């Protein structure tokens, strides 16, 4: 089974390390640049690698860890996600003032579900049902 991780944080790195050790093939993609995690990824061994958004999205299971500021832009770049399992973790907020504008009045898991209506979707550690 292949796991694609889109967005880097302590949670996703720990999941990548454990999954790679367990024998899963991991592709990590950080929309804000991968230079900071290259060394960590190399230490995970041959089961983990940095890759493009498309390569991470080609996995069987997709784990999203995106800043709310990046969420809509990154999700719109994803290919067709039918048949994939998508896990969404709570997002980081880089600009607290963004909480007061436009799209930010909607919770990130609802934004994600609306932009990925065909994929089985779960907000990590809290499942929700969405109608498409």
Describe this structure in words.
Residues 2-88 form the Pyrroline-5-carboxylate reductase catalytic N-terminal domain. This is NAD(P)-binding domain-containing protein. It comes from Flavobacterium quisquiliarum. The structure is a single chain. Helix 4 runs parallel beside helix 5 (108-115). Strand 1, helix 1 and strand 2 form a beta-alpha-beta unit. The chain has one domain (2-123): NAD(P)-binding Rossmann-like Domain (Rossmann fold, 3-Layer(aba) Sandwich), CATH 3.40.50.720. The protein is globular and about 35 Å long. It contains 5 helices and 6 strands; from the N terminus they run E-H-E-H-E-H-E-H-E-H-E. By secondary structure, it is an alpha/beta fold. 31% of the residues lie in helices and 18% in strands. The chain has a 6-stranded parallel β-sheet, with helices on both faces. Mean pLDDT is 76; it is low at 92-105 and 125-132.
User: What is the strand arrangement across the widest sheet?
Assistant: 3-2-1-4-5-6
CATH first level: Alpha Beta
Average residue pLDDT: 76
Tell me roughly what share of residues is in helical segments. Answer: 25-40%
Which strand-content bin applies to the residues? 15-25%
Low-confidence segments, given as residue ranges, are 92-105, 125-132
CATH architecture: 3-Layer(aba) Sandwich
Task: Tell me, briefly, the overall form.
Answer: globular
CATH superfamily: NAD(P)-binding Rossmann-like Domain
Provide a count of the helices: 5
CATH fold description: Rossmann fold
Total strand segments: 6
Largest sheet: 6 strands, parallel
Rg, nearest Å: 14 Å
Give the tally of structural domains: 1
Structural class: alpha/beta
Give the H and E element order: EHEHEHEHEHE
**Termini gap:** 27 Å
Domain Pyrroline-5-carboxylate reductase catalytic N-terminal: 2-88
InterPro entries: P5C_Rdtase_cat_N
Pfam families: F420_oxidored (PF03807)
Protein name: NAD(P)-binding domain-containing protein
